[in-house]
């Protein structure tokens, strides 16, 4: 079925309610892999970070990475889950060349964390609770590169290359309970949930959760049921959706596709699907295996994980403030609207503004520079705000120079430009470029006299009482001093010279 045959989103919602299930995989930022000591560092030559354990050699024995377990418990706690007193790993048996053991070490019916929830805030401020089924530990597979075909997929490829550096990197899979009641806002809820989960994971410091780098990916399950019916419809599972926007689009597309099939009297097959960035569509993958196809059984080579209650409580004590709570607190402190806060968040500026305020700036100034001049600069160079070569302390120093009157905004922008260009700290740029507000009367006097002489008609108007006309003369002085004059002082001097009261 092509996109043009789809029923509209509105028509789909007029007849059906969407039910969603989101499965999010997060690659943990541990130094070593989940069951061996191999490095997890990105960018190494293929197959240089491998050993008998992660290559699945006979007789090699895995050992659980304690930091991996700790991260899983932290995630579970932050999601308000119960933490298992005792749980095991299980073998999920299947063959794929990127998985040299022929099974994935995962957890099946004994996840480390279960029964939780995450409250997500929608764009209009409404809070939607997403219930969490479980969060379990597992390992990543290697990476295959299919060479010679047009699509990069295995079909049509001439040969495939395998890199096992990623095999065995710890993953946490977080699975929601069926999400009901989102109605037409299902795509927005899905996106907000993944966004909130990403913020949470970052706040916990367990992963950078960069979706564009595959550190966090989402499988989107979706089904429709006619209004008023309780039983769920058959779901499809769109795999490996790897941006927030794509999550939203995948839900939307699947709602329309399911509705098209169902309204035409067809049936939905339970299958996995691929998402296509180009047009936001999905296409059929494989018919979905049932759990029994994997012949799960408890992993005999690993001891069960039995986190003591003392340890769990200790970890609970280390949890940071939840991102949503922190955001609301900052929004109130800063006195900004929900919408502005969203822009600040989207720009990745929250932590930078906080750090700038901690370095002494007031929040309005910190926001102004990060969301104005610096956002523009990041945009132009196509980098993240955080990657700009300027620190919050340097931005705070610029703000301080403005606050004390040594710089005006125009000069401050030049100082920032200098810092970004690698000319040194704000004070060094001020010195080198000679950027200082000139407020000293003897230095300004000559420029003021010249401006009056060159604009005799305007000067007459001002003498005649039209004080508002002084702006033109201030402008002339600012131009003559290349923006460095103290505008307020210039205005006073002009009025003084012309003998009128400000
Ligand atoms: P699988 O291993 O087949 O992917 P999981 O239980 O791990 O199964 O994940 C299925 C996801 O889909 C869960 O988030 C679950 O809540 C959700 N789900 C289950 N049934 C339905 C359904 N009929 N419609 C939409 N989502 C569903
Ligand atoms: Mg799944
Ligand atoms: Zn290894």
UniProtKB/TrEMBL annotation:
Record keywords: ATP-binding, Ligase, Nucleotide-binding, Protein biosynthesis
Nucleotide-binding listed as a keyword: yes
EC id: 6.3.5.-
One Pfam assignment: GatB_N
InterPro entries per UniProt: Asn/Gln-tRNA_amidoTrfase_suB/E, Asn/Gln-tRNA_Trfase_suB/E_cat, Asn/Gln_amidotransferase, Asn/Gln_tRNA_amidoTrase-B-like, GatB, GatB_Yqey_C_2, Gln-tRNA_amidoTrfase_suB_CS, Gln_synth/guanido_kin_cat_dom
Catalytic activity: L-aspartyl-tRNA(Asn) + L-glutamine + ATP + H2O = L-asparaginyl-tRNA(Asn) + L-glutamate + ADP + phosphate + 2 H(+); L-glutamyl-tRNA(Gln) + L-glutamine + ATP + H2O = L-glutaminyl-tRNA(Gln) + L-glutamate + ADP + phosphate + H(+)
UniProt key word Thylakoid: no
Superkingdom of the organism of origin: Bacteria
PROSITE patterns given in the database record: GATB
Domain Asn/Gln amidotransferase residue range list: 351-498
Function recorded in the entry: Allows the formation of correctly charged Asn-tRNA(Asn) or Gln-tRNA(Gln) through the transamidation of misacylated Asp-tRNA(Asn) or Glu-tRNA(Gln) in organisms which lack either or both of asparaginyl-tRNA or glutaminyl-tRNA synthetases. The reaction takes place in the presence of glutamine and ATP through an activated phospho-Asp-tRNA(Asn) or phospho-Glu-tRNA(Gln).
HAMAP family according to UniProt: GatB
Family under the similarity heading: Belongs to the GatB/GatE family. GatB subfamily.
Quaternary context: Heterotrimer of A, B and C subunits.
Record protein name field: Aspartyl/glutamyl-tRNA(Asn/Gln) amidotransferase subunit B
């Amino acid at each position: 079925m092509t996109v043009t045959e789809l029923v509209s989103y509105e028509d789909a919602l007029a007849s059906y309610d969407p039910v969603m299930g989101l499965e999010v995989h997060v690659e943990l930022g541990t130094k070593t892999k989940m069951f061996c000591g191999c490095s997890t560092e990105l960018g190494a030559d293929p197959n240089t970070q491998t050993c008998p354990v992660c290559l699945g050699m006979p007789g090699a024995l895995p050992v659980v990475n304690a930091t991996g377990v700790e991260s899983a418990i932290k995630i579970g706690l932050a999601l308000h889950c119960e933490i298992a007193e005792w749980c095991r790993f299980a073998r999920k048996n299947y063959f794929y060349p990127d998985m040299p053991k022929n099974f994935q070490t995962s957890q099946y019916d004994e996840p480390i964390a279960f029964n939780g929830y995450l409250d997500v805030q929608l764009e209009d401020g409404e809070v939607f609770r997403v219930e969490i089924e479980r969060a379990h530990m597992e390992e990543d597979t290697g990476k295959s590169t299919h060479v010679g075909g047009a699509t990069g997929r295995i079909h049509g490829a001439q040969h495939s290359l395998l890199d096992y550096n990623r095999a065995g990197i710890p993953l946490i899979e977080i699975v929601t309970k069926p999400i009901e009641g989102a109605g037409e806002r299902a795509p927005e809820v899905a996106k907000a949930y993944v966004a909130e989960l990403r913020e949470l994971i970052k706040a916990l410091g367990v992963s950078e959760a960069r979706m564009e780098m595959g550190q966090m990916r989402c499988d989107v399950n979706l089904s429709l049921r006619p209004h008023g019916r309780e039983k769920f419809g058959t779901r499809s599972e769109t795999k490996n959706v790897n941006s927030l926007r794509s999550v939203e689009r995948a839900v939307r597309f699947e709602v329309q596709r399911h509705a098209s099939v169902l309204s035409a009297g067809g049936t939905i097959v339970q299958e996995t699907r691929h998402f296509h960035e180009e047009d936001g569509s999905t296409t059929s993958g494989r018919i979905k295996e049932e759990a029994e196809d994997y012949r799960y059984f408890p992993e005999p080579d690993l001891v069960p994980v039995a986190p003591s209650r003392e340890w769990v409580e200790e970890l609970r004590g280390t949890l940071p403030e939840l991102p949503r709570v922190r955001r609301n607190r900052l929004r109130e402190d800063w006195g900004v609207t929900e919408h502005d806060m969203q822009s600040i968040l989207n720009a990745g500026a929250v932590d930078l503004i906080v750090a700038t305020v901690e370095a002494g700036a007031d929040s309005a100034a910190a926001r102004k520079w990060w969301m104005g001049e610096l956002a523009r600069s990041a945009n132009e160079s196509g980098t993240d705000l955080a990657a700009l070569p300027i620190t919050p302390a340097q931005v705070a120093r610029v703000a301080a120079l403005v606050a004390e009157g040594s710089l005006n905004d125009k000069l401050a922008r030049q100082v920032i430009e200098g810092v970004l260009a690698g000319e040194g700290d704000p004070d060094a740029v001020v010195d080198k470029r000679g950027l200082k507000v000139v407020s000293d009367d003897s230095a300004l006097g000559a420029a003021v006299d010249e401006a009056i002489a060159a604009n005799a008609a305007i000067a007459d108007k001002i003498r005649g009482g039209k004080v508002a006309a002084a702006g033109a003369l201030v402008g002339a002085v600012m131009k003559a001093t290349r923006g460095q004059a103290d505008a307020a002082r210039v205005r006073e001097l002009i009025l003084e010279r012309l003998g009128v009261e400000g």
